[in-house]
Design brief:
Blueprint lengths: L3 E5 L3 H13 L3 E5 L2 H10 L4 E5 L7 H9 L6 E5 L4 H9 L4 E4 L4 H17 L15 E3 L4 E4 L4 E4 L2 E2 L4 H12 L5 E2 H9 L10 H16 L6 E4 L3 E4 L5 H33 L1
Parallel strand pairs: 1-2, 1-3, 3-4, 4-5
Antiparallel strand pairs: 6-7, 7-8, 8-9, 10-12, 11-12
Helix pairs in contact: 2-3, 4-8, 6-7, 6-8
Length: 274
Amino acid sequence: MSYKVLVVDDESEIADLIEMYLQNENYTVYKSYTAQSALEYIESEKLDLAILDVMLPDIDGFQICKKIREKYTYPVIMLTAKDGEVDTITGLTLGADDYVTKPFKPLALMARVKAQLRRYKKYNSFSEPMDSEGKETIITTSNGLVMNISAHVCIVDGTSVELTPTEFKILQTLCEKKGLAVMSEELFRSVWQMKFYDKNSNTITVHIRHLREKWEIQQKNHDILKQYGEWGIKLKAEKNDYSRMKRKVFYQLIIMIAVSSIAVLFLYNFLRGK
């Protein structure tokens, strides 16, 4: 199958280089040096992935990404400057799935492209209630979340929530852990399908924040996704998870006090009998 990839970069050398590597993988490439022509491709072609440079002469890559997310869910990879941490956060917040800093190694970019395409096609192909590995394709939780994995549909409290492929995979991974915390490194490998994890990267943090924002549109629960610093993330199993935990601790404390009182009373009577 020939994937259709849009490449947008005003530096012709970089755009041509990316095009060459994509064509070597038998991808169909739509190359653009301006935002205007890129927008025309977005409207006229059925694309599978877009690679967008942040800095463009007419409209920046952020606006193109935002335009894509108004109608489409295919992966978007942003190309940012070496020190562009703000650009990275902005791009991910607007719906980008990944980012690559300049200068970059073409083979590393191709690895990210392939990973994004694998995930996108997997979650946009309809299948039976069970996938090839025998896993259920519909996940429900007691906090109002329903995920149809095969149809790439997420419903919160009866309302559909639009998620990017990366956001969907993050939420699916957390749901499958059934309320257990997932290490950041494990989550990165599962979602991005790459072995190397940069602990200094804020990619996961930004995606989790974006998921929270989308979730909170439907719910008033601001702590449904719990992040433990850079260590890991947990999806709470129930809305009242915290209240249940407090009750459990309270009951345990009452039992401890009762047992201690009985022990003290027994000791007192024992010493008194002597």
